[in-house]
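Regression report. Comparing outputs from two consecutive submissions.

Submission 1:
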Amino acid sequence: MNIREVMEQREKELLSPYAAYSSDTAGRKRQEEECDVRTCYQRDRDRILHSKAFRRLKDKTQVFLAPQGDHYRNRLTHTLEVSQIARTIARALRLNEDLVEAIALGHDLGHTPFGHAGERALDRIHPGGFAHYRQSIRVVELLEKNGDGLNLTAETLDGILNHTTAGQPSTLEGQVVRISDKIAYIHHDMDDAQRAGIVTEDDIPVTLRMLLGYTTRERLNTFVHDIIESSAGQPSIRMSTDIMEGMMELRRMMFRNVYENPVAKKEEGKAMDMLAQLYDYYLAHPETMSEEYRLLFRRKGVPVEMAVTDYISGMTDQYSMDRFREIFIPVAWEVF
């Protein structure tokens, strides 16, 4: 037996009967020779980690657009926090950590510049609408590796596609990432909002703090422990009723005080208008897009509108601003 086969055997000996075993994967759309060292989910994780889309996450907004400070989260740090929370839960429940990590690292690859503001902008102007979780699937199936995609396993694709609140992942590992995503953004967005002076601990009702904890750290600990205790030995991932209700109340408070706060969101309208103008420009001048996106509609039959959406959604915050400045802002004439 090679190293991969030993690890696959060890999974069946050590993991929960509800776990997704690497040896039982539904496979990839394009059949490949197995690696002799890594399991299929480890290969998925590595492919995502080495992708261009993953590297671009470091320059994409999480909540606060262009924050003045070194410690505010971006889309990459959010992704890493989701991964760490999900791995902690998966390990405690004896689920497949490699699959959890692959899903967590890939779940936001399709996110736009400027966070959900960018997502709303593209959803309004693209004829087919836009959702970051569907775009994440396009990234890993088509856009990476010059149009060949990453050829991930069915289980990883399912977890990425179904990581949102409305999703229904088919594996417990996908369910872990789905709830960890929610926990992560509630936790770190509250932390960032307190750092920005938008909310304080005193804004949280005392009854909610008594239930969940008096600091962001205590509340994260409460959520993780409750999921582990409620899901142990169960065929689904769940939270106890009171903690789930408390978490959702905290989430509603975050929407009222942070996500819809006019102070925190005052620049989003500008960002949305900018992306809309870029969309119209590239639709009229698709030949000015990067080569890999021109190839989409020239050789792969992708509609121009979709190729433009792929291009803009893949941009970082700074790159989109640079392109806008280059296209629309006059440059001062210089005498040589």
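Submission 2:
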Amino acid sequence: MSDLEALREKYLAQIRAAEDEAAIEKVRIAALGKKGEISRRMRTLGKMSPEERRTVGAALNALRDEIDAAIRARREALADAALAKRLEEEWFDVTLPARPRPQGTVHPVSQVTEEIVAIFAELGFSVAEGPQIESDWYNFDALNIPPHHPARQEFDTFYMHRAEGDDRPPHVLRTHTSPVQIRAMEAHGAPIRIIAPGRVYRSDYDQTHTPMFHQVEGLAIDRDVSMANLKWTLEEFCRAFFEVDHVELRFRASHFPFTEPSAEVDIRCSWQGRQLKVGEGEDWMEILGSGMVHPAVLKAGGIDPEEWQGFAFGLGIDRLAMLKYGIPDLRSFFESDLRWLRHYGFAALDIPTLHGGLGR
């Protein structure tokens, strides 16, 4: 049995000397692998007498179990040592105060758009979208805008380039989101209740105008829709958007090719101390245009004006943001000034809802 004792000491010494996983695996293969030294000794038991087999077999099994246990223990010790070293090298003091991280903010236009969508969703309106490059028909003809109308002139509208000799009607950068109303009527028919927010383009640039800005237009068509429904809808919207208990709207007769009758809508307000207060005071401020959908527009959308009628309205999202949050210059919305955005921006996770609050 002295040779088994020597074998034991040999492999225990190699196990203690192993410094990494590769070394300990090499010892395991040498001792306990299929061709390992102890495994070879186990295969000789069949040539021994029953008495020798019992004695030597018990000794070999005990040696194999001891070597296997030593290998496992050494593996765990090496793993613990590696973890301790890693923790020592990668330590982090969790008692230190957290470092401030740059926090992104939501642009006021995006915030106000979400506020508008939340309000009209409560009133039963869904959101409709359409292309920003529109055909002349969708942008003008289908909306009852005649060929001589000033809006169709190049000083007001951006026309797309046409190849020489191409006599087809040109495409335009849409001047309003009203084409979305035509597309929605074509796709869904009546009854329908939608709002269409999005970018629009006009050739203008000053403190209150930019070549690209944002509009939202609304459309409601049913059998018994009237100006009274329009007035109630706009009052509910203004009350929720400006977060006041009372608003007073004034309708002034106007003219839009796509509505008949048409009305400009003013809201009662005051400007005391250069601060806008909605619902009180002696001043009036124009906020949007509206009216009953012209029968020609209904026909263009594939709807019978003898059976259906509806109202429509349109307002500027950027201007609403200026009024609600005291932003003096429309051009600042598009100048990419991070200081301006940090001042007027909104927290990314503050989703506007009527129940939780709009502009928080």
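Expected: both submissions complete independently.
Actual: both completed, but the second showed a warning that disappeared on reload.
Relevant detail on submission 2: The CA atoms of residues 135 and 171 lie 4 Å apart.
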